[in-house]
Amino acid sequence: MGVHHDALHPIVAAIGHLKRSHRTPILVMSAATGLLARRRSKGKYMRTSLLSSDGKLAITASETSSKNDFDYLIGHWNIRNRTLKEQLAGSDEWQEFDATQECRPILLGLGNFDIFHTELGGKPFEGLTVRLFDPQTRLWTIYWADSNAMKLDSGKVGSFDGDIGEFFGREVVAGKDVIVKFHWDKRNPKALIYSRAFSADAGKTWEWNWYSNFSPR
């Protein structure tokens, strides 16, 4: 989930006919590299590469990254969503809404897609997520399109380290260039948690603005 990768449009066309809260990891700065790293629960450190020295995203896969990392999401889900009404505006006003989702595998297990259904402002809303795994880099790329924007976004790239997945990309939000972070927590396969954050200061601080709690349908 979230909100232009031209090469994916044939995939979207091909699958269109099939239509039908969490614990944030501790983030630390590595003085040696200047990159953001995630502290693991056993006191070790794994570099979850975020920014290179020239400020570009430099994502590398975790040691455990696998094409099976999103298998837990295959199936039908009820979703309770909680989102900030205004993003990057210092808002603390939240709105909640329900949705349903169906996720299916594609490309011989190297990807999946899901359709997200809800109503926003009393009108039907539909979102499409396409996730693709690159066996060479062992990185996932996540693309989103919806019935409002009607185009695929630029994609969020990352991997899972065990049961926690983090995926990063860039977008313009409220006129600001931001880093977007998707966070997946699958420690409880019957109560999945997705969340999203924006950073307008190159990853120094994050505004968490979307939480989704999944339960099987």
Structural class computed from helices and strand pairing: mainly beta
Number of domain units: 1
CATH homology superfamily name: Calycin beta-barrel core domain
Order of helices and strands: HEEEEEEEEEEEEE
Spatial sequence of strands, sheet with the most strands: 4-5-6-7-8-9-10-11-12-13
Dominant shape:
globular
How many helices? The count is 1
Note poorly predicted spans.
Answer: 3-49
Number of strands: 13
CATH class: Mainly Beta
- Summarize model confidence as the mean pLDDT: 82
As a whole number of angstroms, the C-alpha radius of gyration is: 17 Å
Helix amount, in percent? Answer: under 10%
Mind describing the biggest β-sheet?
A: 10 strands, antiparallel, barrel
CATH topology: Lipocalin
The CATH architecture can be named as Beta Barrel
How much strand? over 45%
- Terminal residue distance: 18 Å
